[in-house]
Write the structure tokens for this entry.
Amino acid sequence: MSLLHPLNLPPAPLKLSSRAGRIFVNCLVRKKAIVLTPEEWVRQHVIAYLHFHQGYALEKIAVEKQIQYDGFVRRWDVVVYNDVFETDILVECKAPQIKISHEVFIQISTYQKILGANWLILSNGIQHLIYEIDAQQNNLSAKEQFPKKLN
């Protein structure tokens, strides 16, 4: 599978480079070159979409941070913080050839229990499952569109 697989997201202004036969992408958030994998390709496109099309500041986006859950160390993909730096959006990215399955939903739900996001997004770059969480009603509702930054 090609690292530069066409995705169901707008083209992203990504800077690619090559060293020692490997392709790197300059992460929009981490501001450094990251080895380009199919999952990283999706992650960078999701970040670009949230920033350039949905209005979220790069300064409010965090990438691949560790959390502990039931004695295990896990790493979530993308979090977008609100204006008071509470978790607003939690994103789980998979490579385009990985199906968004029940297991992926369980994975993001586990992170959700700790982070308390208002939105969950599961994406393999082709398929995007988007859910808004109503914590007061203990309800999860599927949405068609990515959340947009409200001013």
Remarks:
- The chain has one domain: 16-143.
- Residues 16-143 form a domain with the tt1808, chain A fold (CATH 3.90.1570.30).
